[in-house]
TrEMBL record:
Keywords: Cytoplasm, Hydrolase, Magnesium, Metal-binding, Nucleotide metabolism, Nucleotide-binding. This is 5'-nucleotidase. NCBIfam families: HAD-SF-IE (TIGR01544). It is an enzyme of class 3 (hydrolase). One of its GO terms (biological process) is nucleotide metabolic process. It catalyses: N(7)-methyl-GMP + H2O = N(7)-methylguanosine + phosphate; a ribonucleoside 5'-phosphate + H2O = a ribonucleoside + phosphate; CMP + H2O = cytidine + phosphate. Belongs to the pyrimidine 5'-nucleotidase family. Specifically hydrolyzes 7-methylguanosine monophosphate (m(7)GMP) to 7-methylguanosine and inorganic phosphate. The specific activity for m(7)GMP may protect cells against undesired salvage of m(7)GMP and its incorporation into nucleic acids. Also has weak activity for CMP. UMP and purine nucleotides are poor substrates.
Length: 288
């Protein structure tokens, strides 16, 4: 049906069900579709030439905007909490308070650095952040077909926006839910706006943004892209949901986590740094 689904990186728990969902979504047409995607390590690459690529937080951590002492502290936090984030032996209940602690401590350290809003452009430009291969086709196709793309990220909204603006794909059909920085009148970081979004509270974030989903009521078919089990809840605010196809990038600790991803995502992409499969699926659904 879609040749890319036979790639060696692709696994499916129930290929027949995937086929049924795809047929249903294609028959309903692109006017009924919305795409909801995570950002870090889903739209961005996990690794390039064997080296880890940065998340939104890492872009700041690696930049000249942060003192060496602060870099060490943020690195310690990463080394402590990232292994917990991806630990398949711990429950979400056990991880949740630890994730809140990680995000809260990291944001406090960033605020202490008195980061200037007008320096973010340069930090992104000088960073090693990379969108996945095929990103341009993904963003441009959704734009051409007027399909809304919601990027739902526990990263930093201001940095995320700059990454996609820098790549020339921040089209008007893109909306972002994320942690946005709060700058004072002089353009200096003084905190973060609204409720904290971390990887395990995207359900609450989705429900809080009811107005967005109300506007998209007629788009009852959802293509969801994520890289963590927390991303599975990103579509919880969608109204009149009829079909949802969940694609999960499995980037790290692949053998330990394969079964839980197979149980929860419809399609999993193991160590696949491309947008080939989402792009092929979008072309199919939109009848191109
Ligand atoms: N201080 C931090 C906190 C989180 N991260 C990573 O960011 C990712 C969250 O962003 P999504 O777009 O994937 O929702 C998450 O996977 C954390 O590993 C970080 O790098 N530093």
């Amino acid at each position: 049906m879609i040749p890319e689904l036979t790639k060696s990186s692709v696994s499916m728990r129930d290929p027949k069900r995937v086929e049924q969902i795809l047929t249903s979504m294609r028959n309903a047409g692109s006017s009924t579709l919305q795409v909801i995607s995570d950002f870090d390590m889903t739209l961005t690459r996990f690794a390039y030439n064997g080296k880890r690529c940065p998340t939104c937080h890492n872009i700041l951590e690696d930049s000249k905007l942060i003192s060496e002492d602060c870099k060490d502290k943020l690195q310690n936090l990463l080394e402590t909490y990232y292994p917990i984030e991806i630990d398949s032996t711990r429950s979400v209940e056990e991880k949740l308070p630890l994730m809140v602690k990680w995000w809260t401590e990291a944001h406090k350290l960033l605020v202490e650095q008195k980061i200037r809003k007008d320096h973010l452009v340069r930090a992104v430009k000088e960073s090693k952040a990379m969108l996945r291969d095929g990103y341009k086709q993904f963003f441009d196709h959704l734009h051409q077909m007027s399909v809304p793309l919601l990027i739902f990220s526990a990263g930093i909204g201001d940095v995320l926006e700059e990454v996609i603006r820098h790549a020339g794909v921040f089209h008007p059909n893109v909306k972002v839910f994320s942690n946005y920085m709060d700058f004072n009148d002089s353009g200096v970081l003084r905190g973060f706006k609204g409720e904290l979004i971390h990887i395990f509270n995207k359900r609450e974030g989705a429900v809080l943004n009811v107005e967005h989903f109300k506007e998209l009521q007629s788009r009852f078919n959802v293509l969801l892209l994520g890289d963590s089990l927390g991303d599975l809840n990103m579509a919880d605010g969608v109204m009149n949901l009829q079909n949802i196809l969940k694609i999960g990038y499995l980037n790290d600790k692949v053998d330990e986590r394969r079964q839980s991803y197979l149980n929860t995502y419809d399609i999993i992409l193991e160590k696949d740094e491309t947008m080939d499969v989402p792009n092929a699926i979008l072309l199919y659904i939109t009848g191109q």
